[in-house]
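Collaborator request, handled under Task 6.
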Amino acid sequence: MTSDFRSSFESVALAAREHAAQTDKNASFPTATIEAARKASLLGLLSSKDVGGLGGTLRDAADLIELVARECGSSAMVLTMHFSGTVVIEAHGDLATRRDIAAGKHLSTLAFSEGGSRSHFWAPVSTAKKDGNNVTLDAEKSWITSAGHATAFVWSSKPTAGSEASTLWLVPNKTTGLSIDRPFDGLGLRGNDSAPVRARGVKIPAAHRLGDDGAGFGIMMGTVLPTFSVLIASGALGLAESLVQKTAEHASGQKYAHLQAANALADLPTIRAYVARMRIQVDMAKALWNDAITALATGRADAGLRVLEVKAAAADTAAQVADTAMRVCGGMAFRKDVGVERMFRDTRASLVMAPTSDQLYDFIGKAVCGMPLFG
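Structure tokens returned to the collaborator:
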């Protein structure tokens, strides 16, 4: 972790820890965590210093997300989507919005997934029609994180002209014609405010386009996917790290009181072996995570492959480690106050979040076999 950011990262993680249980119980937005990030100027972590941001790197953002996820998966998810939106706006947005993000006045998120294209987030079926200096959007977005709290959405649609896959827009949350179908009440990540959003005749200025008309797919693959994949992996690995620690503490502290020697669970070789496997799994996935970040930072030829691998590996690792944590901690793991069952539920999200693990394994297999990923 960069020493310049260590104390501010820890302050956000502390806020996440304090409110994590209530965030999960009430399916409430992690306002305290996001406010802590705002006060620490971390909403502008990836914003350029030219607009007042911190000029941080993807590794800095990954370290923050991993640390926050150890305490609250929902908080980590909201920050992940904010940074994923930020990198698009930094590259293609207007100066005023970039300055607002840097100043902590703007919470961003992505609005890609749709009911019509499901987990194929790169292929929207929603429309954008040019109307003079405006554009009219119609869509059924199936999942938008921070749907009720984001300042604006990085929004995908079909192009206004041409046959390319998509175009991206900046759509303010309070635009007339946007509506949230229902609040989020899910199994895990219960505070991330991920909800279906409907657009009916939504008019925005054509100047809100992010990049060229028809350039959305390229921006998704070249800008969004590397950031999103690494940060989703960061959240999964933060959850996994916390599960290892909680399981080791439980195994070391819980004893069989009826036995004369009062053996701890960790005195059993089978329990120690479970914890050892958890530790190895997380360390292996973290090695790939670190290598993926290095590959992107140095422009290595295998960076694209690492982007695909890191989300799949981290998601599977977190889910497997969570399964083991529930087994080792036994009946205690079902109690809310232990915290293991909350993290068990939270780890399930990264498996099915587009691109899903199954899709990624297909893409990775194609890449290794020298086949095109799409088509």
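The cover message to the collaborator said: "The chain has a mean pLDDT of 94. The domain at 217-368 is CATH 1.20.140.10 (Butyryl-CoA Dehydrogenase, subunit A; domain 3). Please let us know whether this matches your experimental observations."
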